Amino acid sequence: MSRDARWKALLELLVEQGRLDVEEAAATLDVSAATIRRDLDRLAEQQMLVRTRGGAVVHGVSYELPLRYKASRHAAEKQRISAAVAELISPGEAVGFTGGTTTTEVARALAARPDLASGTPALTIVTNALNIANELAIRPQFKIVVTGGVARPQSFELIGPLADGVLGQITLDVAVLGVNAFDVAHGAAAHDEDEAAINRLLCERARRVVVAADSTKLGTRAFARICATEQVDTLVTDSAVSDRTVAGFTEAGVTVVRA
Fold first, then answer.
1. Which of 32, 139, 151, 198 has the fewest CB atoms below 10 angstroms from its CB?
2. How far apart are CA 40 and CA 144, in angstroms?
């Protein structure tokens, strides 16, 4: 197993378990404990985990993997969700995108739609996510508007007051939100408060709001609230979501689509 593959596996184990033990991680990845110790030391130097005696733990409530390490988690579910979200968007609409792996997949699904292969423009895309803007900028039929702000390395999102200035001057047909958590009582949320603030502005500027989230994020809470549940029109999730969870969101006025 290559170093990059080990690091990715270690970080995914850390997110799932909350902490890592050197001996257990070595057995799981079938490498020596010395190799795991070196890996954890290097990851700690990059501030991607906190080293402890005999292992490592996450940084705390604001901890979040950089986007490049998150892309493969629940990949099949995200692709089904993204295809379903893309079908909710009509030609000619102005669409706001937050950052995240699921919203990136939605952008790719839109780029692949034959009915959006031409237009003046086929879609207007407004985003604070540098990677989404980069992927769609080569599509001449899409008008791309990027907010200002300071780049956040973990999610490639622009945050801060410079983004506020752009978002305050536009209106959107739909905002597509990637979230870290979505709970009926507590609403949609992100780990980072600055990221949540920009996402909140996108919601406020949109005629309708679509949350794209796999079922593992439902019924959970994160540090910074984006918006209340009643501000969300549609939730697109995967088929693993429970009937009870769906009923709770439906009773709150949210249309739930299972992909």
1. 32
2. 40
For residues 138-151, give the mean pLDDT: 94
Q: Cis omega before residue 121 (within 30°)?
A: yes
- Here the tokens at position 226 are 């984006």
Residue 11 CA to residue 3 CA, distance in Å, equals 12
CA dihedral 114→115→121→127, nearest 10 degrees, is: -70
* Site of tokens 């994020």: 217
- Give the tens place of pLDDT for each residue, 59-70: 544 445 555 555
Assessment of whether the complete model's pTM goes beyond 0.85: no
pLDDT at 3 over 90: no
Q: Is residue 53's pLDDT more than 60?
A: yes
In the prediction, which pLDDT does 63 show?
A: 47
Q: Residue 145 pairs with which residues in a beta bridge?
A: 126
Compute the distance between CA of residue 211 and CA of residue 215 in angstroms, rounded to an integer.
12
Give CA angle at 245 (242, 250), nearest 5°. Answer: 125
Residue-level pLDDT at 73: 57
**Residues of 66-95 as b/e, b for ≥16 C-beta within 10 angstroms?**
ebebbbebbeebbbbbbbbbbebbeeebbb
Contact (CB, 8 A) for 99 and 179? no
Beta bridge partners, 21, equal 55
